[in-house]
Specification:
mainly beta, signal
Length: 154
Amino acid sequence: MKRIFTTMIALALVSISTVACSSDNNETVEVQVDTANPVGAFTAIKTGTLTAQNGTPTKGLIETGVDNSNTTFVHLGSDFTTELGTGTATIYLSRTATFTASPGTGNPDLKLIGIVNKNGEAFYKVDGTIPAGLDYVIVWCGSANIPFGNGLLK
């Protein structure tokens, strides 16, 4: 009897978890981030320096440019530093120094570049070219919902 009762409980739990994890027909969009290194030499087209915000240690060289295969990259210099404790620091290109999310409309003034997983030099491959006017790099902390820093590319 105890075995039947245990089996029934197990089946009920599986049924509940299956229902709880079922699809609710909401579409999600996945953004693939390719952090492959440039092929050959990296040639900077625009450069700038990050300015810290909200008491973080964010600083360092920022660049956009191309490699020998004419692939576009965002480059964080070897002196790049930010707060890594939250695990949600991300790099964006923006038309302004202010992060303005608009998930429902796919904000054309903001482009996700990649997730920061370490301090120091990093390359982020950009799909296609960078739209004109996206001249700011923003380091954004999603979990705290605050900017860690930004910089103008010239």
